[in-house]
Amino acid sequence: MDRVPILKIGDILLVSIQVDMSDQTAVQLQEDLAERIVATGSHGVIIDITALDIVDSFVGRMLSTIASISKVLDAETVVVGMRPAVAITLVELGLSLNGIRTALNVERGMELVAAARADEHDLEELDDEADAETTASP
Amino acid sequence: MDRVPILKIGDILLVSIQVDMSDQTAVQLQEDLAERIVATGSHGVIIDITALDIVDSFVGRMLSTIASISKVLDAETVVVGMRPAVAITLVELGLSLNGIRTALNVERGMELVAAARADEHDLEELDDEADAETTASP
Q1: Are the beta carbons of A51 and B5 separated by less than 8 Å?
Q2: Of A75, A117, B9, B97, which residue is 20 to 30 A from A13 by alpha carbon distance?
Q3: Closest partner residue to A18 among B18, B52, B105, by Cβ?
Q4: Better-predicted residue by pLDDT, A16 or A131
Q5: CB–CB contact A9 B110 (8 Å)
Q6: How do residues B3-50 score in pLDDT, each as one tens digit?
Q7: What is d(CA B98, CA A134) in angstroms, rounded to the nearest whole number?
Q8: Domain A6-136, what architecture?
Q9: Domain ranges of chain B
Q10: Contact A7 B14 (CB under 8 A)
């Protein structure tokens, strides 16, 4: 039981972390996630940490790494379900979870992914228009 | 870390079982689920068992109990992500998971819940029509 299951829901991959992460479990999760993002063409990864009583620097770094890998594979990462006590400890430890978006719960996380995708889409359209204008101009 | 987190996604509650269930964890999960169904008015419970290498009679009974409780609270229960080896062991052990619907993955589980709700809705409408006819007749 040392693999964290990855659930696909529509365009999104959902991971619920409930066990203490060992080095091996963390690396396995990163590999599994990268593979699933590519295999499914998902654009969002939601990581639920409701069950975690504490997020130490190891878990924090793992979350950052997952977010970076996902970013490279064109997927947004949102961490959801953080307990108030965990947030307080994170700040006290000076861990800032760089590059990680957070949301209160899975539903808001999904909205955040959708919104981020929409923004990106708008930007791409603007780029396309700009390209078109550049091409059109003599 | 002896509580299994319950995630709300739209009309559905999602539970991903990843830890070995003790008596206490199982009872806690049943209570938490019953409370969340009532609090959120959810109509479906999806239990993901991808992470389980084995489903013994204890876990089987827990799943049946959860399904029965949900049924009373007007929610469908679907168990998803069962491994082939688990299915084989279940049959060999003579456990039949009475009253439990299963689906291959979360997405199909959601479809199953939606379909079950639609069927029920149709039946209710038929009842209403029948009632209306009965009332209309002299």
Answers
A1: yes
A2: B97
A3: B18
A4: A16
A5: yes
A6: 899 999 999 999 999 988 888 999 999 999 999 999 999 999 999 999
A7: 66
A8: 2-Layer Sandwich (3.30)
A9: 6-136
A10: yes
Task: Enter the ipTM.
Answer: 0.77
CA distances B138 to A138, B13, B127, B129, Å, are 83, 46, 19, 16
pLDDT of residue B92: 87
Band of pLDDT at residue B135, cut at 50, 70 and 90 = low
Task: Encode burial over B97-124: b for 16+ CB neighbours within 10 A, e otherwise.
Answer: beebbbbeebeebbebbbebbeeeeeee
- pLDDT value of position A136: 55
- Quick check: B13 and B110 in contact, CB under 8 A? no
Tell me how crowded residue A47 is: count the other CB atoms within 10 A of its CB.
25
The radius of gyration of chain B from alpha carbons, rounded to an integer in Å, stands at 17
**Cα–Cα distance, B81 to A87 (Å, whole number):** 32
| Residue B122 exposure: Cα atoms within 13 Å on the Cβ side | 6
* Rounded distance between C-alpha atoms, residue B50 and residue A1, angstroms: 10
